[in-house]
What does this fold into?
Amino acid sequence: MKKSEATVSSSVKTTQQLHQEREIIIQKASQRMQEESKQMMERYLEESKRRASLLQKEQDSREKEEARKAELMAVRMAEQEEKQRARSAELKRQNSLLKEDGAKKEIEAKKAREEAKNAEDRMKAELERQRERKKKDEEERIRYCKKIIKKI
It folds into this structure.
């Protein structure tokens, strides 16, 4: 009987061994869960960054399109106003020649053309200032979005 007890006792593990094996299994499972959680978090962060980048690109393209349309509209309005001023000036010049007030009216017409040119120069300067302001605003938004993405 002693021989059979010896074989049984060699295959039977002590409580301490069982606890150690249990702890090892628990640690491995915990590490596996932590690794899976870490991978899921990394995938989520990458997806979030990708989505934010796509949204930013879409917004940028919309803003560029709006700015392009506004600039085109301003140019067309300026051209239309210039044409109208030229027509008015030409009609006034012709009327003044017909009334024999030619010399005096020609001087006034010249002043009107100069004023029109000054007005056009002011408009061009205003358009340039608006373009610069929009550019600065866009750069601010980009910096702001980059800060948000870094926080993510």
Residues 16-151 form one domain.
